[in-house]
Amino acid sequence: MTLTLIALDQPTSDFAAVFTRNAFPGAPIILGRQRLAESSLGAIIINNKISNVCAPGGSDAAEKISTATAAILGLDSSQILPSSTGIIGWTLPTEAMISALPAAASQLQADSILPAAEGIVTTDLYPKIRSVSLGEGRIVGIAKGAGMTEPNLATMLVYILTDLAVPRDTLRTMLQSAVDQSFNRISIDSDTSTSDTVALISSGTVTSNVSLRAFGDALNEICRDLAEDVVRNGEGVRHVIRTTVTGAKDNEFAHLTGKAVVNAPLFKCAVAGNDPNVGRLVQAIGRFLGNLPDQVDASALRLTMGGHAIFANGVFQLNPTKEIALVEHLKQAELYSSAPTADGVFTPPVDYPTHERCVEIGIEIGSGPGQAIVIGGDLTHEYVTENADYRS
Amino acid sequence: MTLTLIALDQPTSDFAAVFTRNAFPGAPIILGRQRLAESSLGAIIINNKISNVCAPGGSDAAEKISTATAAILGLDSSQILPSSTGIIGWTLPTEAMISALPAAASQLQADSILPAAEGIVTTDLYPKIRSVSLGEGRIVGIAKGAGMTEPNLATMLVYILTDLAVPRDTLRTMLQSAVDQSFNRISIDSDTSTSDTVALISSGTVTSNVSLRAFGDALNEICRDLAEDVVRNGEGVRHVIRTTVTGAKDNEFAHLTGKAVVNAPLFKCAVAGNDPNVGRLVQAIGRFLGNLPDQVDASALRLTMGGHAIFANGVFQLNPTKEIALVEHLKQAELYSSAPTADGVFTPPVDYPTHERCVEIGIEIGSGPGQAIVIGGDLTHEYVTENADYRS
């Protein structure tokens, strides 16, 4: 287990957080929701390996760790946000964690966020950091993935720090909006973690004349980039699939259409095999439309893959030359080739992503102004290897 | 490609069919819906390999094959139900199929339905037949799976024949009811085929005093058994997962809760690895409950696996002895061991299911009288192998 401590020079009243919508949230989530009502926040203490969800005595454990962290930093326990990720159901080794806190505090430094980005990972292959400079200040965010990742949010912990002064209420509105357009528009596997957290903290030390609009744009950029990073490093992901949905009734309809595609196992498997099986793409969209209470006119649907028209006027638009181009598009978007060891174990070889290309799916519904970009991954042997015996 | 012809001795007015709800149905489905309005049905002509979905000229192809089949049998084309399954988007080789029809007709026989059950398969490992004798008559059904299988219905073709006289309207009501409790309560991979069909045909030759209730019960039994057969022979399935949901607000709520579990990739992977990762089970239920518009009291949830209590009063009920028993339950339900060849290809070795045991999940929600049994499979390397390059 790694303990990661993020401490502010001074507690701040300007902080925001968005948590999982899972109905069985972890103890740190329950506590974190209470912290939103506190007047200030001074530090975040994060552990990996065990998520402290529905474990006997879980709330007490989270409180004890907050109290011990506060004592070391000269803060009140109400100023500490605890976060946990890892196995669901196991009990935190509270005493051992408290014993390790002084060492974590002694390593606090102001030079780099990389150790924190490295400390919070579980099955991630590499740390994820995004940063935007703005006027005389900066926004920097770190994230962990990498499975149990759908909307609301993911087994995903994201911490975004800024020195730019933005008041609490504005931070909270902006964070929810940024999350809706980023972390809520990705899916590794359609599962939703019990521990998802995105926190945003402003130290307020830089009060230059950066507009709130510029701040919001930069925050959206950080969240979108980190969200795509989470998918690119999703468990077993070898292709990132980006669906751009347009012409929907409204944005939410477009969002759900994209989700239906990136969560369709058969299409995800086809992408893994560099197989442009567009029939499975149409199946996935047709399943979504067919399950709606109101009948949708599906005849206006137009699909592209890698910019090539593949479906229009109710029939496929395919020929052998186009099929070859589609296979090439899929191969270009592959992060690495799949290869098992002699005993059938598939292991991802990448330390950092080899490129940032996506399998590009265009979905024009032809019934309104709604649009959304939804990002997901393929379904691979590496995903099954990772998840058929993660605990053992 | 295999052509399978099922012909009645005499056309009958007593027939019923339920089709996919996918918004992009195949041409045979569109034609099949029209056939329901016809006065009689005389034969079904089925091909595998190509599903005739959204292919240019698909409706014409289905009509031509109906007409050619009718000509050979001395029927009208309106009395023929065409069915197709296989790759979506490809065009049927209509002329070659018409040339092969006389050979298919010459093989018609009244001894056994086994050749038909064998003829309709695609990736199925074995034919699926269920039969119930009733008074002086009988109901016999055949089914194909094996992927793209969720509700409404599955890449699933099911043909149920009976000599017992039951009028058309009653047949149709009974079939919809039986399908709702069987084929709509299974999921291999949450995908929904564009070609799903369940047809029920009564020749009406036996008019013994079998009650409609007894007939309905036998039909339900056939459908339930065939539905479980479809899952047990689902693509890559090594464990059948049976969720028994009780105490829900209503039956539909129970149904959706069960679906949320059997469609949760991380839990399915854990089952594949004989890993009783009950945290992922709680996550899956919590995701479903957390996404509902109304808040649900999750504190009354009680879970069992293999009859062992694993969750109650908001916390896990686990200990090392129980974990060993849970692993044993999973191993007992395994259909075969997973083993790759030297080049990493996983191939299911079974010709027929080795047993009929399930991973038994009990979910008591504690808020009402609703209940449902929902059946699904695990997520395995064999599934990925089968679907990453099915077309090639």
User: Can you give the mean pLDDT of chain A?
Assistant: 87
**CATH homologous superfamily annotation of the largest domain in chain A:** L-amino peptidase D-ALA esterase/amidase
Number of strands of chain A: 15
Q: Cα-atom Rg of chain A, whole angstroms?
A: 22 Å
Number of helices of chain A: 11
What is the architecture of the largest domain in chain A at the second tier of CATH?
4-Layer Sandwich
CATH C-level label of the largest domain in chain A: Alpha Beta
What does this molecule look like?
The structure is a homodimer of 392-residue chains. The first copy, chain A, has helices at 27-35, 58-73, 94-106, 114-119, 168-180, 212-232, 251-262, 265-272, 278-290, 320-332, 381-388, and strands spanning 3-12, 15-19, 41-47, 80-84, 128-134, 137-144, 157-164, 186-187, 197-206, 240-248, 302-305, 308-312, 315-316, 359-364, 370-377. With 392 residues, the first copy, chain A, is α/β, with parallel strands linked by helices. A 7-stranded mixed sheet of chain A has the order 8-15-10-14-11-12-13. A 5-stranded mixed sheet of chain A has the order 2-9-7-6-5, sandwiched between helices. The first copy, chain A, has a 3-stranded mixed sheet with strand order 1-3-4. In chain A, helix 5 (168-180) packs across helix 6 and helix 7 packs across helix 9 (278-290). The first copy, chain A, has 2 domains: 3-232, L-amino peptidase D-ALA esterase/amidase; 240-388, Ubiquitin-like (UB roll). Helix content of chain A is 34%, strand content 24%. In chain A, strand 11 and strand 12 (308-312) form a beta hairpin.
